[in-house]
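S., here's the first fold you wanted:
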Amino acid sequence: MTARQQPFSAAVTGLGLVTAAGVGVKSAWHSLTHDTVPGGVTRPAELTDLPCDFMYTIADLDPAEVLGVATQRLMDRFSQLAVIAAREAIADAGLEPDTWDSGRVAVVIGSAHGGLAFYDQQHAAMAGRGARRVSPKLAPLTVINGAASSVCTDLGVHGPSFGVATACSSGTVALGTAHQLLRAGVCDIAIAGGAESPVSRLLIASACQMKAVSTRRKNPAAACRPFDAARDGFVVGEGAGLLVLERPEHARARGATIRAHVAGYGASSDAYAAVAPDPDGRGIERALRTALADADVTAGDVGHVNAHGTSTVVNDLVEATVLERVLGDHPLVTSTKAMTGHTLGAAGGIETALTVLALEHQLVPPTANLDVPDPHVPVEVVRSEARSATFACAVKTSLGFGGHNAVLVLTRG
């Protein structure tokens, strides 16, 4: 093979999830596969009186209880969620930071907005009480790489680390980047995924003006409805999803349980518009075909797709059309955003972890709130209840504002 690199599969050995559907992998997976009504939709005070005054939050999580008050104060909430997810992921992988070669560990975490909520708070402080009331911690707490930095500090990681910002595809791009680092031999272990906590009046107000979010205020739990004929926009959520990826020989040498493999990665740019996907889907198609070739698999090998599926009119139709064009109508498709919310830069990390679980359990979670499927959607979207199936290969797709597309191919461990 001369046109591309030799196939390389990164071993997935650990998962960590902090979502509105559940804190911890077991809780989140149980909710995704058993609950039919989203339980994490709340009305934060910051969103009062907005056309969309609701979002998915992790209301029952107090990071100070998990991290300690002193540690918690050194991070914005998106970084706090990342650290909590990272701790679960490395414990799941059976890794001990005291014994690993910390210089051979990488951290790559995506986020679309970083500490945007803290920006809101500090702007209000300056407007109301003057510049002297602005926190000196504004820059370190709000930068996109804050989550990666916090995870490195918490776990004692000395290898390469950085934040990834490609809008709503950030978490998937972070995992693809980690896959490439491992393939290149830069590290033996990578902790990668996404984190986001966009509880921001400014952001949601803008999304309302853009008409990107649902305004179904009378029934917020039913507002996010991917692939449904009555969908009217996404619902923002907070969360974090991190995976431990390893070079396969490193995982085998230490006797780790390999939960799945990240076998291929593809990325592309639409070069079309700031907030709308290319209506022909050429960008996401390019990323999907690149990922399949990178993994050395065919369309017929793919049995499941965890779709980006945002619940917006245009995105869902474009994405579904491309999936059918490239993969045919046989893979079982789902969108898990109706249970977690659209967690923006964290979505790819959370949803890749859920795809690993689907491969492990041979079970596809249903798409909640899918009451009347859009007749123009040409793929089989699982609804009503989880579907048992036999498949050895799955795909995770992500699309982001600015035309950023990313796709991962995962295979069974």
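And the second, which I think is the more interesting of the pair:
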Amino acid sequence: MIARFGLSEDEIRHQVMEWLAARSNDGSGAISYAELHDFVLEGEHLPLKDRFKGIRKPAGFSAALSITTTFRPEGIERPYDDGVYDEDVLLRYKWDGIDPNAATNRALRSAMEQRVPLIWFVGVAKGLFQPHFPVYVIGEEPEHHQFLVSAEAVSAATDSFAEEHVRRYLDVRTRHRLFQGIFRTQVLAAYQQRCAVCNLGHPTLLDAAHIVPDREELGIASVVNGMAMCKFHHAAFDSRLLGIRPDLVVEIRPDLLTEVDGPMLRYGLQEMHRRPLMSIPRSKSQRPRSDLLEWAWDRFKMVS
């Protein structure tokens, strides 16, 4: 029981995650740094993210409540290399420094030992974070100064090949969900929440379209491989009814230009032909990468 709130730590974690789910549409939307200080419990503000440190353990808690990965623009490394290793699929979170007995590292180790759920805030823009919850610390690699993280409450220690296979499958799913959520938020933010093709500005109708599909070798989960598109234009782009030239001009498949099929075809596709994109990132570092555009343009020309 945490005296000042009159609630158990588990009850507080549950309330925090319910509040986050409501604020972030179950984790699919980003939340601002200011909002993370809006959570109120029993009339008292309880900040969910530490202002300076990546690991947040509120006063009176026995273990960490949240971890944060700092946003850095394209080409600038984070202070800690949180993420995944190439040799397997497990997510990693770096220690705070290299001292295993630092208070923050002890707090995260306690979360591992108690198997309590945490929140992972991933920076997707300045002052904007994508929340992923619940996540669990399932192991530690002291030689690399890092913890192992999963979105499933599955023990890292197992004697069963089947259990190990299940855990790895869950961690693949964790990684995909985590990275795709980050990708969507970063791309939509870069395009000011507007469709690149038609400038539609309703986020619920927008997708983060991959220029090169993520199944391809070039299909990196980076904002430079994405464009914000409404669901209609995303589907048209993926099915090669619509192409984007490397100079960021829209082309429509020639056979569609003479077809008569109502206002959606006319205004949604035909009138987009040879128009420049209507929304592009202000920052040049976030604009589509030329080699990725060339790949997608060559693919479009194969059917046009």
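Why I say that: DSSP finds six helices and 14 strands in the chain. Residues 161-190 form the longest helix (30 residues).

Talk tomorrow,
H.
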